[in-house]
Request: fold
Amino acid sequence: MTSSGTNTRSEADGQGREPVSTAWELLLPVASAPARGRGRALQSALREAVRSGRLAPGTRLPSSRELAADLRVSRGLVTEAYEQLTAESYLRSGRGAGTWVSGSARAAAGGARDLAPRALGVRVDFRPGTPDLSLFPRSAWAAAHRSVLGRLPHRALGYPDPRGLPELRNALAALLTRRRGVVADPERLLICSGVAQATTLLGFVLHGRGMRTVGVEDPGSPEHAALFASAGMATAPVPLDDEGLAVEPLVRSGVRAVVTTPAHQFPTGVAYSAARRSRLLEWAREADGLVVEDDYDGDFRYDRAPVGALQGLDPERVAYTGSVSKSLAPGLRLGWLIAPADMTGELVDRKRTMDLGNPALDQAVLAGFVTSGGYDRQLRRCQRAYRERRDVLTRALAEHFPGTEVSGIAAGLHIIARLPERWGPEEEFAARAADAGIAVRLLRDYGTRRPADGCVRLVLGYAHLAPADILRGVRTLAACPRQNPC
Reply:
């Protein structure tokens, strides 16, 4: 590994494997993490690198001595990280043979937002994160596009305001105030290329203010670690309980910023309780900290009106992010960020240097779609379809997997299914499903904790699947041969 943090070493293990080349700079934020959190940070960074595919199966890792020297951490810390990930099957090792990325490791590529193309040979894909793209309102969008082209002045096609088109910021501010209870000043609303860019922008600004570690929910979206790493920030996992993020571990972590999904926690589906939301804001005030609210699917609630955004309770302590990736399509790359007033200028400056702003024409079309009522109609259409598919999935699980407990069903685009112990072990269940052409995600893939029981916990996305495909997928899963049949 060179002094720049990039290992260009190419070697084989003596068994005919192809040489590999790996960018170890992804792990460098570990060195700047607080001393007591470096072990967790290294394990999290390595785990995410394997999940995302940055460390491909068969990649040989540096020796513990080499990596410890490069990261300027103790060798024992690296050894412990290697042992932990070997126990979790992310890595494999043999006496005198070094440490390698396990061939059984499966890339998660973003967890909640599964960025990997759907695998060839998959018959039914229950991986969460994608809406039904066939519901995209092509006719209404095309009409809005024609209307915009007919009235947009020539000057609007020049370099855009990096904050975003004023018409779109005004339209979204009104929408978010009405639907999500957000305190949305158009002058503080920044249009971004989805929540991913909003998160990265916040990471750069927090880094510029001297922060080096951000708290993240455990379990939570693996994507956050990679996004913050791109801004030079490490992440520290903070556990959850039945009410949401556990505040006492958050206090002990020493971080001053934390990413949350309070309306519908990803992936557990927990809606933060009123008491926990209040306590979290108290922490932010006491620590002079920041809560980053990822409202990734807050509009999709089926049992009652959506829970209001946390940001509405304290807009100077909460940075609010959202997008149209679940309501329209992720390919539009349109999202928003509303941050505390004292951060807005820094965020706009960073956005300007990053890309000079989002495409003006796309912004104008979305503004027209929102103000015409098309966006509200789209949400109602999606809610009807997704509620039906949720019900189909829960009924199918009850029929084919009797004794299964489901949770997180009140909102969102996925559920948690806890199958009885007789369907385990989890790794074998996932392997049997893959062999049958059914793609699933285990809850354990999204966090560091491992349940003591032998039950299989699945995160099942349903929004993108037709009811017939849901039924076919569940039936196929139930028919997979297992070692301990009912």
Observations:
- Confidence is low (pLDDT under 50) at residues 1-23, 107-119.
- Residues 323 and 335 are 4 Å apart (CA to CA).
- The radius of gyration is 23 Å.
